[in-house]
Structures are given as structure tokens and as C-alpha cells.
Amino acid sequence: MKKLSFITLVLFITTGFAQKIDLINAPKNPVAYNYKKEHFDLKGPVYSFKNKVFSKAGLLIFDNVFGGNSFYYDANGRLTHTSEGNEFKYGSNGYIESYTYASLGIKTTQYFYNDKGLLVAEKFDKASKTNDYEYTYDSQDRVIKSYRNDNNYTTYAYEKRGDDLIIQENDVRDGLATLKTLKYTKGIQVSYDDVLMSTYNKMDAYGNWTKDYSPVIFYDDLKSNGNVFTMIYTKQNNYTIDKLMDCEFFLNGKQTDAIYRRSSKANEVIIYNPFDEKYYIIKNAVDDSRSGQVQAFTEVIISTPTYLEFIESSSYKLVHRGAEYQNNLYLRSGSLVVRTYQNNYIVYDKFADKTFFAPYDPDENFNIYGLKNVEGTNIIYIRKNKENGFIAFDRGKPVESTYTFGYDGNDGVLYNGQTPEYYLPQLKTSSVGVVHPGRKYNASTDKRAGTDYSNTATSTSSTSACITGNCTEGFGEIKTQHATLTGFFSGGKANGYGKEVYSDGTGYYQGEFVSGERHGFGMYTWNSDQSYYIGQWKEGQLHGYGYLKKGTQVLQAGYYENGKLTRNLLSQDYINQRAVGNCIGDCQNGFGYYQFSNNDKYVGFFTNGQFNHIGAYTWVSGDVFIGNIRNSEFSGQGILYYKSLMTTYYGNLSNATRQGMGVYYNKSGNIESKGYWDKGILKTSF
């Protein structure tokens, strides 16, 4: 076993490009963004833990959530952006100065530090400052207060007992205080409220708490060649909509969640192997006859690290090294460019900053194409015919028609006015209909010539208007530049229930609006993968209690602030579907699933054993409630689905009865009635 002195050496870290971290004396000090292994309290040559993969330098490079997220760094090891479109900027001190992210709009958080490299404030770009954070430290550089407002703050008190550090954490949320006692030994948390970290059953040689079903995998565990991925499918007694949820995956015999995996037709399972950069398939992997068997991934289905998948309605998904790149809303909108030319796919992604290509047969009905990367350049060309016809692309965009053309021997040169800008090697002798690499013109090595080349460009415009009903005081439908919103209006703004559908097909929201912003209870669905958020909103952002699902799988659950999950309430028991009595998860003070003896079911949040905040209740009849809950009472904004009628009500409720403004949809999904309801009866029709 390695000595603890090694562990101690890595627990205090500060560099020219890193915020100060002291896990021995100040383990609760905040950091701007977690992207190093020490931010996750990991030690040793960590390759992966849970969903995350780290480089040998200890930098987070992949997170297997929401289709996979890749992390990009500059030459100094500073995190610059992610494949999801998040961007980071740095101040003169080398610390993260701002973080731009997508949360139903483009949001930016700014970070401020003192001269010791300690984070002292986080400021959001909303006009309201109630969600900003301020941090106070003692003379030993330990955080003693995290302050948002007078009703939401946390204080910390420290006591040193030999090698042990005892922290009293008083967390005040909405005026209610919760006191916790945390115990750390040499920077490692060993207990919580005097209870040992029992969810972790052992400590490894480097000082990481671990467990059999979620171990840390080290670079020492990897083989120089021939790393083996396997899986075990376990048949469930109850029907599962996505059998991938019933699978466990292993790397060289150790369980891991840090690999890209997907289910396919005919019970197939596909994974990405990052060591040989290929995608592997097991056919009939989740057939019930294979339940409990160890199955190895040996058959290659895609021999490149990148593929393009046609989804539907002319939309595409790029998967590069196990991370999905799509034109989702906001930051990634328009980032993925897909073009076809002479039976070639031309693909460029802004955040990967790479150009890919693949030939295709128009007579074949494939929906997945393995792509090749154009190494070292984002400039390509394709020759149209044996004469001078060709087209050039720069980062997926055709070169403008204003450019002129000439030869330098067999090589082509494109001019912007009188200035040579692009160089196309071997253009004159290149094969027709094949993608070839180009580059920027180099004045020191390239020559000049001249003839002609042309292209075309297009432009679009949009308008906004109330297209039906009363969009000032009543019920109407308004079309904006990006979406169509149908719902109740007051003072010319959406107020009450509304449905907002984005014109680019990326997703839609159904729920409560206040003064034109999503505020209260609502659901947002991403069409690209049919994942959806159920929960509370504030001023257009995920804010409050909520959970994120894909199919029947809950991906996140907890408390959100300004679009970010700040309190995770999704327990390991829920993730692993471990039942204790009638409960899966935390049915006392957390997030869980509870089944009653009469087969009624509830999934959502609990407080002191009662349904609270947000949840979904399914009666044995098949009727369903989803929405706001207060001490087990289904009141406030919500949804009622009536199975026997196949109809749905969206709007205000009182004890699961229509009360207030709401809309009733028939089984075809069309509005049947709308207006003010009293005790379940429509009193005023709009």
C-alpha cells in the first residue's frame, strides 16, 4: 500500500493557472468549476470514476451524461469549452473569470477572487441579484459563510482534533436550517453526522473511498494493448422501456459508467472503445436468454471514432469519440453543419473545430455513416468533373462566389480580390467526386495564377405577430422569430399556462408563464433524444426542485439554481433500483419511487415522508397527476391525464381538481375547452 505521505502531497494544489485548493484544511472551499480530479477529491493516476474520464494530467476529458460531453483545453491546460457549447474565459490571474452555459437561454456567471486565489463571489447576468453568491473566509483561508440572501446561506465552523477535521455545516434554505456534522481525516471525508461513509465500503491504495460496483479505475489498470469491454444484462421482473438501463458495463473486469453506450434495433448494444477508437456491437445483447451472462464486445460496427446519424425531419447527430454533437437550442444552435455534395457528406462542428467526411450511396437506405477526419485542416475541396469544375469548403461552408481561381502547376489557388487565400494541392490531377484536403495560402512557398470560380449564397428573414386569438388579454397564439407560443395572456405577455414550440424543432415547453417568462411548474422536452425536465422554473431558468428523464430513466434529480443542479438528491439506491420495502431511493427526505399496496405509484420528492415540491402520481386506474405538490396535496400548476378518456388538462389545480385558469385537450391533442375552472367545472370560457 502506498504511504499516506503521498496522499498528503497531492491534497494541496495551486498553480499559475489553477484556483487555490486545500483539501486538508479547507475541503469546503468553493471552486468556480470542477474539471480536475482533485475537484472531485480523487487521488492517484485516475483514469475514470463513475461517469467521468480523466487525462494522465488529471484533467476531466469526458463525462458520460446526456449523450456524452467532451472537454477541450488550451496549451496551458486551461479548460476552454465543452462539446455542449459551454465556454470559459480567464482573467489576468489565470483563474476562471466567466462561465457561459445554456439553460433555456445563454447565461454567464462571473467569478471574483481575492489576492490569495480564493473565490469570493459569483455573479449571474440576470437583472435580479438575489441569486448571486458571496463567500467569506477566516484567517486560515477556510470558507466560513456562503451567502445568497438572508433566507439562503450556509455557515461553517471548524475544529481540529489531531489528524481529524470536524466541520459543523449549518445550511439555511428558504429560512429553514439544517445542521450537519462532517468529519475529514487528512483531507478524506470519513463520516457524515457521525455515520461512516457506508455507501463506500473500502479505501483504495491512493486514499479514494470506493465501492465494488463503482470503483476508481487507474491508468495502472489499463493494458498496453487489448483492453476488454464486457457487459452483463439482467432481466427484470417488471417491463423496462429501455433495456440499456438493465445493463452493467465493465473495463478489464471493473464496473464502469464512463463509456458511451447506446441501444439499437433487435436488442443490440453499441459502445465506443476509446483505446482503439472504434465502435463495437453485441447483437441480441439484451435478449432475456442472455440474462446474467458476461458478454464481450469483439465485433466492430464502425471503424472510425466518428459517425453521423440521420435522425428524422432532415436532422442529424454527430458522435465524435463517444460524445454527441447536435444543433440543440442556444449555445450549440447552428454549430453542427451537414452538407451533401456529389454523394459525399461534408460535416463540420464548431466546438470540435473539425471537418469530417464520408462517401455515401444514394440508393442505399443507411442512417449511420462512419466519418473520416480531415487531419490538420478544415479546408477541403471536391472536383466536379475532369475540366476545371470544383467546390471548396471552409469549416463546412462553401467558399463565396466572389473568389477567383488559378493554377500553380497542378495545384489550385483561390483569390479574395487580388489576395491569394486558399491553396488546393493536386487539384488538376485529383479524382472526381472525392474529398481532398486544402489549406490556407502560404506566401513564402506558394505561387500565383488566375482564372474563374463561382458559388452561390442565400439569406433568410423572419417576423413576429399574434396569429390567432387575443394575445393581449385572453387566450391566443403568437409567433416569434424562434417559436410559437399558445396560451393565456395578460398585459400583452404570457401569464398562466402556455405551450411554446421552437420553430427549429429542437424542443417545446408546456407549463406556467409569468410576465412572459417560464416561471412556476413546467416541462421541457428536447426532441433530439426525447429527454425532458419536470420541475420548477424561475425567470426562464430551471430553478427549484425538478428532475430530468429520458424514457423511464431518471438522469438527474434535485434542486436547481439559475439553470444548474446545486443539490443532488438522486441517491445511488435509486440509480441502482434497490428497493427497501415499497420504496426505491429516498422516500423520507429526498427523491424516490413508492408503490402502494393497491398498486398506486408515486415518483418525486419527499419531505418528512410526505410527497412534496414536485412529483408524479399514477392511480391504479391509469390516471396520472404531474406537477406541484404541497405536503402531499396536489395543488398549484399541474397536469391531469385521464386514461379512460385519453384526455389531458394543463393548468391550475386544487387538491387534484381543476381550479383556476387551464386548458383541456381531447384525445387527438386538440384544445377542447379553455378558461377559468371552479371545482372541476368550466365557469368562464375563453
Automatic annotation (TrEMBL):
Q: Does the keyword Acyltransferase apply?
A: no
- Please name the InterPro entries in this protein's record: MORN
Instruction: Identify the keywords attached in UniProt to this record, alphabetized.
Output: Repeat
In terms of Pfam families, this protein maps to:
MORN (PF02493)
| KW Repeat (keyword) present | yes
SUPFAM superfamilies, sorted: Histone H3 K4-specific methyltransferase SET7/9 N-terminal domain (SSF82185)
- PANTHER family reported in the protein's UniProt record: MORN REPEAT-CONTAINING PROTEIN 1 (PTHR23084:SF263), PHOSPHATIDYLINOSITOL-4-PHOSPHATE 5-KINASE RELATED (PTHR23084)
Name by which UniProt lists this protein: Antitoxin component YwqK of YwqJK toxin-antitoxin module
| Organism (species) | Gelidibacter maritimus
